[in-house]
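User: Can you help me understand a structure? I only have the sequence.
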Amino acid sequence: MHYEGMVIRPPSEANSILLQVTVGCSHNKCTFCGTYKGERFKIKPDEQIMTDIAYAAKQYTFARRLFICDGDALIVPQKRLVKILEEINRQLPWLERISVYANAKGIKMKSREELEQLRDLGLKLAYLGLESGDDETLKNINKGASSAHMIEMGRKIRSAGIQLSITVLLGVAGKNRSAVHAQETGRVLSAIDPEFVGALSLMLIPGTELHDDYEAGKFEMIGSTEMLRELRTMIEHTHMTNGLFHANHASNYLPIRAKLPEDKEKTLRLIDEALTGKIKLKPEFLRAL
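Assistant: Let's start by predicting it. Here is the structure, written out as tokens:
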């Protein structure tokens, strides 16, 4: 397989074939993210992509899932993306799921009919980085989309029959807007009502704008207890009809896996026990991105 630069994938794609179709991220302006800094976004040549598909068909016959990398491969023009998916289907017909990172811009560029076409070709899951439902926080982190736009795009891709996994980021609003960030994120998650939510905890990365703001005293980082309170408020204000809320990423202090709405009260009690010291939190040295 031909890989360029930093290749990342969601934790749930650990056993998936990683097919790199794009390099970098077309937005690449979020203040907290250092993944693609200095990396110019591009779509890889079709010949190389097809070569990798053929290689995967021979070497990964045991795999049942394929993840299309990198940061927002959904932005690939429809004809090229259809061609890639058709070739995947032709050479790896045993796959049970194809998934992709998406952002609001990429979803907007696709019509409902185009998204349905991708679904019919096996694209079953998209990962969307919401980070926050608070408009001021979204502006501060340079996310490039408002909460209303995020809701519209989230509903759009779900209406096309593609499952949605939304990532939110604890601590990204800083100390002053922590409670607002938590409540507003719950509001947006409720409005989209995705199948999956993954909560990560902010870890400042040297070289990013947010880290620079922290060093300059412009951003006040919250601690583990405040992160837990933020998570509790977020879950309390999230009303999903049938979804999984995960907070078991390596960056989190307290691993949580809750089915909502059934497990909401039990999960809130678990967090309360952690806040009162009855449950130990993950030590700082064990946290990771």
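Now, to help you interpret it: The first strand starts at residue 17 and ends at 20. The chain has a mean pLDDT of 94. Let me know which part you'd like to focus on.
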